[in-house]
Amino acid sequence: MTEFNLATVHETVSTVVPEREAIVHGDRRLTFAQLTERSRRLAAYLSRRGLGLHTERGSLRPWESGQDHIGLYLFNGSEFIEGMLGAYKARVVPFNVNYRYVEEELRYLLADSRARGLVYHATFAPVLDAVRADLPHLDVLLQVADGSGNGLLPGAVDYEEALASVPAEMPSVELSPDDLYILYTGGTTGMPKGVLWRQHDIFRAAMGGRTFATWEQVTDYEDLRSKILPNDGVRILDIPPLMHGAAQWAAFYYMTIGATVVFPSNTTTVDPVDVWHTVERERVVGLTVVGDAMARPLVEELERGSYDVSSVVAFGSGGAILSEGIKQRLVEKIPNLLISDVAGASETGAQMGTASSAGSVSTGRFSPGPGTVVLDAELTRVLEPGEDHQGWLAQFGAVPLGYLGDEEKTARTFPTVAGVRYSVPGDRARWLANGEIELLGRDSVTINSGGEKIFAEEVEQAIIRHPAVADVVVAGRPSARWGEEVVALVQLADGSTATPEDLLAEAGRHLARYKLPKAFGFFETIVRSPSGKADYRWAREQALKV
Known about the structure:
This protein is an alpha/beta fold.
């Protein structure tokens, strides 16, 4: 089969549907042709500034990069997609920057990534200005005006002026399937790490190289052209921040088939009213979110207000699963809705999924895609479906090369078992006799209590079933008796009340007694990343205080 380059994929799609809208964000609308022109201009500018490839992949080790890197320190919008595509077209590697980072975290990320460039919204100029003296290698700064009133930093260039200063011509480079895609992990359980993918492999794993659910692969560029939607009108609302892999993957997946990616007008926060007004205005057919934390306020607003959602047929979550309660409330408001949970990780791509609809709502068990298996606890063999063992969720085939600059963690996360290289990012799972995989939880947030392993996500899913609970995160704390004990940090829904005894009774209907929380803490807001993922470092700190 042909191997793919993400820039070439985009250029190919653009030749088939040049006048179709690629991106809609408020009043701004870009056709595929316009997106192509702007990304080519960015590529030309980066190339003119000396950024690009300096060492071909073949002479590098898995954790090494031979390309220059540019950070995208941006809210959602066309500039983020342009930044990715423009960098790819110059053989520069873009990477995601968490816009919630404080100075110390931003300094770490830009140093760890060895960033040569940064595209950033003017809102973030003060934080960047505070750390840039410590980053002598950061010499290309493109500032995107955003109404914040912050002036250009010394040495920075206005983004639009930079694009206007060069022709819309591709640099004279030879694009390769070996060119890198870098995705930094969220850092909610440890320091962020840059995951290195070959572009061909991430295209296969998550960005349009195969059809989700059927897993049919795109074989070559002619096949890619044939799979582009023949009609306009498929518009997908991408709500999570593009600094999160699930949002990037959704955007590229749908652009690859010629669909239109829509962003809410307000991309600095999730505004449920704005989301549903965007759905009405753009006749959106599908929405993407990350778990309950993002979906719950949308459901609550849909139940409160009156919105025309007749165009909506799909609702998908990646990066965190949706609870049964949220799914049930969604199908009650949109009876013909198909809800999909996609499980995967920065180190695996989209691995498996589950679908729910009216009359058939479930959570936590998934149908695996090609290459998804469960390895035994010792990483010596692949378990068979029906073996009653907890193991490691693993992926082979299209998997990353490694972690940028980290040989040790690369070897640990990407082991070779019986001659096959796997990605094993740390999720525990059980392979059921019917072929489904039960996802238990991330090992790094597992609580070892009295010699028993308790998965934080499993306890969270039991507690969230209580109707008074709006959000919950579970963490462990030291215990003289048990070694560790479970602590639940709970945010109650507005106007609702519940006691620890109420929540224990609900959890006790779904969990063995030893898994139940020993303490509860009630908070006005549960701290999560902008993508909606739980911040377990924060949770562990709070658990010590409860």
